[in-house]
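Lab manual, section 2.4: Encoding a predicted structure.

Procedure: take the sequence of the chain (126 residues), apply the prediction step described in section 2.3, and record the output as structure tokens. A sample record is shown.
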Amino acid sequence: MSDVSFGIGAELQGEYMFSKNVSATFTTGYTNFMEKKAFKDASYSNTGYIPFLAGVRFYAAPQFFVGGRIGYGLLTSKGGSTGAFNYEHQIGFNADKFQIVVGYNALKKNIVTINDIGITGVYKFN
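Recorded output:
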């Protein structure tokens, strides 16, 4: 497995507020990682990542949250695709029209884990 230093992508996320402090999220999207080698059965020079995640966020204050998401992640390339258990931990800043999120994202299959730390800017459609 080789390291990757850069990926770029877009996500679509829905968020349902159960209360002013707790919400549920549902996420999918696409990210392209350059020069990534994934699991043994799917090694590529460019790898696409498609998440299918659901999660919970806890708002400690209206502007700050922590959360987690779990689901399935799909890795794709010209050579094929493979999927794995996907989880992410998040911490973020919440404003009226945008969010800034820092997260640790990991995909685990058998004994292999691939992961990244990402910074995401979110525009909110109200």
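Check your result against the sample. The radius of gyration is 15 Å.
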